[in-house]
Design goal:
Blueprint: H1 3-29, H2 32-37, E1 39-46, E2 51-52, H3 54-66, E3 73-86, E4 89-104, E5 107-124, E6 127-144, H4 153-157, H5 168-176, E7 186-187, H6 191-205
Parallel strand pairs: 1-6, 6-7
Antiparallel strand pairs: 1-2, 3-4, 4-5, 5-6
Length: about 210
């Protein structure tokens, strides 16, 4: 690879990582217009609770956050990004840890969800934007913010039977807000993960 090509690859990777980072920042800060602009208009977004277009994702995310308790906060922290480039296409894979503080049934909880994102990028008209986002979920946990304030029986009364074991608390708190698990939810170590990873490889090869 020539020096000029190496420099261009570095620029492309920087721009790609910046778009993925901005999408997470916009989601947490409530910049819904900025969130949508991180994606191509015909892109597809897939998460634990959503499957659809960027505009729908922005609107439903806005509605979800509007329904939260005033004390609720969240942060998507991304790290270890790896970008594979081929022509006008790229795949940016990175880890995400979602930290949430939620008030549920009058009690305060701290929730953590671990996942991996596959952002499939296309460069159109000189701009890198996400064409498809796939989130692969690994595990979660839910802890009382102050254990002394939550009765020991609270967790025993929770009905988690309808949720995948690996992220049952994540899905439970979303369902309590009116957003049940998506039919396209992908879990780490499953055949669904194999399929979406194979699709990402095939998609990149066409770049």
């Amino acid at each position: 690879m020539s020096a000029n090509n190496k420099i261009q690859a570095m620029i492309d990777k920087h721009e790609i990582i910046e778009v993925s980072t901005n999408s997470r920042w916009c989601r947490d800060s409530g910049d819904w217009a900025g969130l949508v602009l991180c994606f191509h208009p015909d892109a597809h977004v897939q998460s634990s609770w959503f499957s659809g277009s960027p505009s729908e994702f922005g609107q439903q995310s806005k509605e979800m956050m509007a329904g939260h308790h005033p004390k609720d906060v969240q942060r998507h922290v991304m790290g270890n990004p790896r970008v594979a480039l081929k022509g006008q296409r790229a795949v940016c894979e990175y880890s995400v840890i979602l930290y949430q503080h939620r008030v549920i049934d009058g009690y305060e909880f701290d929730l953590t969800t671990w996942s991996v994102s596959l952002d499939l990028f296309e460069k159109r008209d000189g701009q890198w934007r996400i064409s498809r986002r796939i989130t692969i979920y690994e595990k979660d946990r839910m802890d009382p913010h102050n254990a002394a304030e939550v009765p020991e029986s609270y967790f025993a009364r929770m009905d988690l039977s309808g949720f995948p074991t690996a992220i049952r608390y994540h899905c439970y708190r979303n369902a309590r807000s009116g957003y049940p698990p998506s039919a396209n939810l992908v879990l780490k170590g499953t055949s669904q993960e194999e399929v979406v990873r194979e699709e990402a490889v095939a998609w990149l090869a066409g770049g």
